[in-house]
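ARCHIVE CARD
SHELF: 3
SLOT: left
DATA:
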Amino acid sequence: MLITRSFFATTPKAMEPILTEELQALGVQNYKATLAGVAFTGDLALAYRVCLWSRTANRVFLELSSFAVNSQDDLYRGVQNINWYEHINPEDSIAVTFNAKNSEVINNSHFGALKVKDAIVDQMREKFGQRPSVDTERPTLRINVHLQGETAQLSLDLSGDSLHRRGYRDINIAAPIKENLAAAMLLRSGWPAIAKQKGSLIDPMCGSGTLLLEAAMIAADFAPGLLRDYFGFSGWKQHDAGSWQKLIAEAEKRRYIGLTQLPVIVGFDQDRHTVSTALKHIANAGLAHKIHVERRDIADARPAEAWSPGLLICNPPYGERLGDEAETAALYKKFGDTLKAHFIGWKAAMIISNPELGFRLGIRSQKPLTLFNGALECKLLRLSIEEQAFFVPKATTAAERVAHIHPPEAPDLPEADAYPAEVDVATAMFVNRLTKNLKKLKQWRKQNNISCYRAYDADLPEYAVAIDVYQGEQTWLNVQEYEPPKTIDRDKADQRLAALLAALPAVFAIDRGQIALKIRRKQHNTDQYEKHSGQGRFHTVQEGGCKLLVNFEDYLDTGLFLDHRPMRLLLQQQAKGKRFLNLFAYTGSATVHAAVGGALATTTVDMSHTYIGWAKNNLALNQVSGEHEFIQADCLEWLATEAGQTNPRQYDLIFLDPPTFSNSKRMETVFDIQNHHAELIKKAVVLLSDTGVLYFSTNFRRFKIDSEALAGLQVEDISTQTIPEDFARNAKIHYCWRICK
């Protein structure tokens, strides 16, 4: 007699419809999709089939009981109402996961998990004089409790480990995307139908091979769970081994047949290391000689004549703080050129976090689909490579933008209230506002010896630019245009920008050649370090007694973040006689301040060779004493390595200003500040002396610090103290915390 049970399959946000379709195809009839999962009913064999065959699920839970929790004791009693000997033996191992939402009783997941664990082991100890051990890696049984308001749902985790872990990946190598996200991309891009028609698949930026392997497993009818050697039900006392073995035998037969019908699947990547990694993963999956991978640049990606048109799919770089955004934009343009030249008649798909980058391809796409790469919202672009879909991308760099602008001769504006007739009312309003700002900041600048500052930040909606003033051997203006929304007429926006550029020389008494124009496009969870050219012209400015190099042509940012001025001065004041660590150091301006402040020693860490060189030059300008170390490395890897030492380095002062997000090909992991900041801070604190201070800063506007995860530290929000007068209109320009042990 079959017993109908209740289950819940989890999946990443926005993938619920895909999981629902999968469950239907696997024979699930009674189901209900909810946020981040699908509830369904059926027998145990059906749940096993989902564990084995679902390409998009994370976990499958078997619901044991549901009970009210109005106190901590209610949770303990509710768990003890289960006869745990029906599920495990006293000598077995367990692991407990607990999460709560909208609960007034328990909101600490660690405490909740301990309470559940205690209820189980106390029951077993009382009955048998022996208790199960705890094993968080591969327990005999993994128990999950979800507390929603006053209702707790107690379940067994049949998957044991997240189902996206197929079993072919080297555990020491993280992927830019998880396997179930890759599968979702393929399913939504029409790959199953293309594969049945013997269409080819190419990933021109294949990295460690995730998309290639998921594509092969889909095309070959290869169960994604077939390579796994561990499931959560394996040690469960009620495990139906007979049903499971039947499913395995069926899956192996289907794989054998499917592999004989595999279409052409090819991966390219310009990096030799990632090609080797992809080949290793392919071999681990038993697909050696079934998938072809070779080292090849995106510009050289093209199908062989014998390959049938099919699907080109990839996970290109999103653009990140530690790289050059211009390089990413150029990559997309090059990618689009390659598609237009060599892939006519093909379908293409890619996942990106910044939809604006998709326009650089110059190919119209279908309506983008929302997916999430971890916490990062992304868009899946799907394109048909046909000539009627091609277009010329709009300008994204200053050079492209200025090419469309023909500014009038600069009017003579010696006084703020004396406008010639040819300057329109809107421009007069802009000049008036700018002049008022300069007057307002004048006394503050004089008192604080400020020579580099923000004079204007989109104060008027008609003139959406930021104007930063840099005074060194001469005065420079760095004008950053916030790209106008689509509702604003492009010609009108061009006219206003032209008028603004014409007015600025008179207001500041400078030549037009001393004004640098940049375009700051809206980004999604990423910072811009856009490279515009390689002119290499640097200028020296001063700040707080420090000499610093800035560059106005080569990058979107100049090398000096003006909003962090108070933070740098604070570091300078506190650095005397101390050992200073600057992580994600960019051009090392904070290091210079610490050194000028009398730091005993400094360590400067950044991934970029360019920025490490810039930081060295900045420090050399100031001729300071002390020991100064520069390290070019992935800060995440470097910090993890140093924190893991038996006797880790110790610093008295640490500045930690990480990027908002990075999926750089040079980094082994996907990093996003909201999900990973607590772990990052805790590792940095390992390097902090007992009386030391760590300053943590982020520019992510929706950032929320994880106070619970950092409960063992002294964490003080000092954001308001670090926002300077010239950024007072933009109080969310950054957040900052003072952290001590």
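SLOT: right
DATA:
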Amino acid sequence: MKLHGWNGKILRVNLSSSKVSVQKYGADFALKFIGGRGFAVKILWDELKSGVDALSPLNKLVIAAGPLTGLPGPSTGKLVLAAKSPLTNGYGDGNIGGLAAVHLRKAGYDALVIEGKAEKPSYLYVENENVSLLSADGIWGETTFKAENKLREVHGRNIGVLVIGPAGENLVKYATVISQEGRAGGRPGIGAVMGSKNLKAIVLKGTKEISLADPKKHKETVKECYKSIQENENYSFWVRQGTMGVVEWCQENSTLPTFNFREGVFEFSRMIDGYTMEAMKISRRGCPNCNMMCGNVVVDLERKDSELDYENVAMLGSNIGLGHLGKVSVLNRLADEYGIDTISLGSNLAFAMEATEKGLWKDGIEWGDFEAAKALVEDITYRKGQGNLLAEGVKRASEELGGGSEQWAIHVKGLEVSAYDCHTAPGMALAYGTSPIGAHHKDAWVISWEVSTNRLGYGKEKVDKVIEFQRIRGGMFETLVACRLPWIELNFSLEWYVKLFKTVTGISLTLNELAGTVADRIYCLMRAFWVREYGEKWNKEMDYPPSRWFNEPLTKGPFKGGKLDMKKYEETLLLYYRERGWDERGIPKKSTFDKLGLQKEAVELGKHVSLIP
């Protein structure tokens, strides 16, 4: 069967031996895992042994596209970056937008698998069949911005670049991959995985055409899609503020992370919200094929460009007590230049500030201290002084620091929580608890729905919505691969993706198949990856949100006194497991593996942990 939409090829590079090979795959593999996250978790499951050191040459970096990636269509300029996470020691991934997505596909590949370790700092150059490992002597040690500009001077402007900064080189456990001076991906330390391989950058250039099943129908459908997005009543406000509008919404609904997730409201929220951003804004940036760009570029306090969105502003603003958007923008830009995750960075800074407040942190840092925060960002990046401890993430930092700090180390499975306080949002807390990479909103941003319904309730309604969103956001969008913002922000119909899939591949899959069966298969395999790593130590407490939300009620705002109920959360978590076909430990049952066509995977997992039929 001829594949349309998919190239049917995976490029493999061994940095240790400089061996390059091309693996072909067929329709069975394509339809079972679709692309992106599906390809990534299957490759990592098959090819990594449990217990592999995430920063060793044995770990593999997978960069994967989907059948919609790089083609004309709403927000299709996305790639999934995946590896075993050095931050969590579980499955880790993230997506990144930019020209790299287009060029990987036009070079003729749907995924790139990198293993081994280069003898010296290097970068990978891929131009169609020409694959070369080149010296990175001139860019190693440079910031992501400078390194990418140097690579564009050498290889031309029309290329895709994925690059790490000094944080990745120094193996900061939450180092990210950066592209185009502000596009970032790989929160669970994918940048550190590249650094451990002496891989500074990946440069991609493709000149081929991707085969479409129905080019004419595809062109017509894409035109209708763009028109539908622009006609939405919220489009003009989105163009003005993008995700920055969420600051005001969170403040109003007491979910804005403040003082290390101690509170849900911030006294100076207006100083960091979307309206303040509008006054500073000079331009917008977005990914290829996007007509609702989310990157708002402002001039920061140091007169340099900084690309803002909600997550980095909340985590580097209210969460550390800093109510000055010009200063927040500096911290955000530094994070992008150094190649470090803004969410985890904000959490680690807040952890240090609270440790200072509680007398546990030597040479302390006070809440909202901008200059000290700047200095600490550099110390984390270069692992200097106490920055070396924070470079490990809040979970490890709290274990070493002690003094009860584990109670206010805000993470799930080692990944710091993204920017929504859940003292009074049990559904979102469940989404964080069960996210397949650790605490991240990417897979199930249910908080907007939750606030507008039975906000404080627990039970089946919340479980069903979390699973529904995981299937759509973490399943369908992460495999096609496309951005979910048109749907979640502008009510763009999911049926458009079914139509696009048909015009691209020629294959009819229903929404229930794309955001149901396929998604469940991938979630089952991601969960299996985690369980295989932890073996019999795995238990349901791995899926608990931070202790603070249960033990320390809010003291301010409209939900003063609010906190999560542990007994009700546990009951809701067990309901989630039942709906997923997992046992009371949170491990998929053998019957669930069978139902999803993962019989071989069940046999493998059964070597590490007992499976319930």
